[in-house]
Structures are given as C-alpha cells and as structure tokens.
TrEMBL record:
This is Phosphonate C-P lyase system protein PhnL. Belongs to the ABC transporter superfamily. It comes from the Bacteria. Residues 5-232 form the ABC transporter domain. The keyword ATP-binding applies. One of its GO terms (molecular function) is lyase activity. Keywords: ATP-binding, Lyase, Nucleotide-binding. The keyword Oxidoreductase does not apply. Gene3D superfamilies: P-loop containing nucleotide triphosphate hydrolases.
C-alpha cells in the first residue's frame, strides 16, 4: 500500500536577507514515509529542524528541494509544487496540523473555532457545534469558556482549543507539534486517547513529542532528523 505521506529528498534552507544573505541549510535529503494507522515521532536534538520539517509538510514553508507526496482523493499529490487552491483543499480534507500555539482569531468564540473545519466540510452548524462542545468537554475545558474567544485563555486552555479543532474532523494525515507541552497529566491522558483513536481509524500521524512518556505511548517508531552540519 502506498504511504499516506512520503517525502523524497526534501530540503530546506533559510536565507537571512537582513544579515547579509546568510544561508542556513536546515533540512537535506529527507526521505520520510508514513502509512495509515501508524504514528512516527520526529527525533533529533534541539535545532535539528523538526518543526521546520512539520511546517514544510503542511506547506507553511516552501520546500527548497525534493517532493512531498500526499495521498489525496485517491491519488498522490506533490505538495511541494501544489498550487494554493490545492493546498486549501488538502488542508480541508486530508491534512490536519495541531501547531504548538493557537492562532487566535479576534472575537470568534472557542466553540466556533473548533466547529469551523467541520462546517468547511459541509456539516450542519448545529451538528458541528455539538461535536465541538463534546470535544471541548472531553478536554476538560470549562463550559463557561466555550462561548468566549480564547485570546485571554491560559497556555494549556489554548492548547486544548487547538487540539479540539485538530481532532474535530478526521484527517487521514495529522501533524502534531508538541501536542501535550502545556497540559497536566489528566489532559495528557485525553490527548493520548485521541491519538490512539485517530490511529485506529486509520490516520497516519507525524509528531514531535518531547515528553518521553507520551512518545513511548503513541509512537510506533522514530524518524531521525539530523542537523545539516552533522549530516554533511
Ligand atoms: N523562519 C526561519 N528563519 C531562519 N531560520 C530558521 C527559521 N525557522 C527555523 N530556523 C532555524 O532552523 C533551525 C531548525 O529549527 P527548528 O525549530 O526546526 O528546530 P527543532 O528541531 O524543531 O528544534 P526544537 O527541538 O528546539 O524545537 C534552527 O537553527 C532555527 O534557527
């Protein structure tokens, strides 16, 4: 069976235009393949490029080299060369991303932020809000907060809003950047269950998990991200 997501020779470097054009190679020759129902943990020292790889996979950073082949609508699509319209469609249907920090949309209530990706797929508003509230409850976010914009929420509360939004629809490929970093033990356990359920439903998951307990609980294998100076 073909991988849900695979990279071929993926490379990424940054050029610091304000620092005399300093060139920083971060990723080179990355060949990663993740299949349905498995969770791969990115592994490597601080600064190796794990978050950069995640952002390339989601299309937030353009790839400098190589291909990012995503199984989308039954065919392989190269995200490295996909046009913006395709990227929007891919993010709606196939590829989810729970980043470390919630990007707060001013004045939008928490339950609407969580329900939005469901409605984008055509779910009726009432049903989407029910699912949003249920997930927020499961993540122990107090009911009184569901109707408020999350701008003033604590770090852990915002992370749970982000998680509820990321797990609300089923994504065949899900990227998780430190999904439990700001959470207490009880909520960490809920997130582990959500990850296990997504895997059981067939999601291919790529994660950065600094917490060893979390990593050992959900990751099927590690993928080494090597600092470029070491890899050269
Ligand atoms: N937008 C950017 N512009 C310039 N350099 C960047 C940019 N983003 C990341 N880098 C550099 O790329 C390297 C890899 O950073 P990245 O955040 O991907 O590492 P990481 O493996 O996720 O680290 P950590 O485990 O500490 O979070 C670092 O040297 C960082 O300074």
């Amino acid at each position: 069976m073909s991988a849900a997501l695979r990279t071929e020779g993926l490379g990424k470097a940054f050029t610091l235009h304000l620092q005399g054009g300093t060139h920083i190679p971060v990723l080179g020759g990355v060949d990663l393949a993740v299949h349905a129902g498995e969770c791969v943990a990115l592994w490597g020292p601080s600064g190796a490029g794990k978050s950069t790889l995640m952002r390339c996979l989601y299309g937030n950073y353009g790839a400098g080299a190589g291909r990012i082949m995503l199984r989308h609508r039954g065919a392989d699509l190269d995200l490295a060369t996909a046009d913006p319209r395709q990227v929007i469609e891919v993010r709606r249907e196939t590829l989810g991303y729970v980043s470390q920090f919630l990007r707060v949309i001013p004045r939008v209530a928490t339950r609407d932020i969580v329900a939005e990706p469901l409605m984008a797929r055509g779910m009726a508003r009432d049903e989407a809000l029910d699912r949003a509230n249920a997930l927020l409850r499961r993540l122990n976010l107090p009911e009184r907060l569901h109707g408020l914009p999350p701008a003033t929420f604590s770090g852990g509360e915002q992370q749970r809003v982000n998680l509820a939004r990321g797990f609300a629809p089923f994504y065949p490929v899900l990227l998780l950047d430190e999904p439990t970093a700001s959470l207490d033990a009880a909520n960490r356990a809920v997130v582990l269950d959500l990850i296990r359920e997504a895997k059981a439903a067939g999601a291919a998951i790529i994660g950065i998990f600094h917490d060893a307990e979390v990593r050992e609980a959900v990751a099927d294998r590690l993928f080494d991200v090597l600092p470029q100076q070491d890899a050269a």
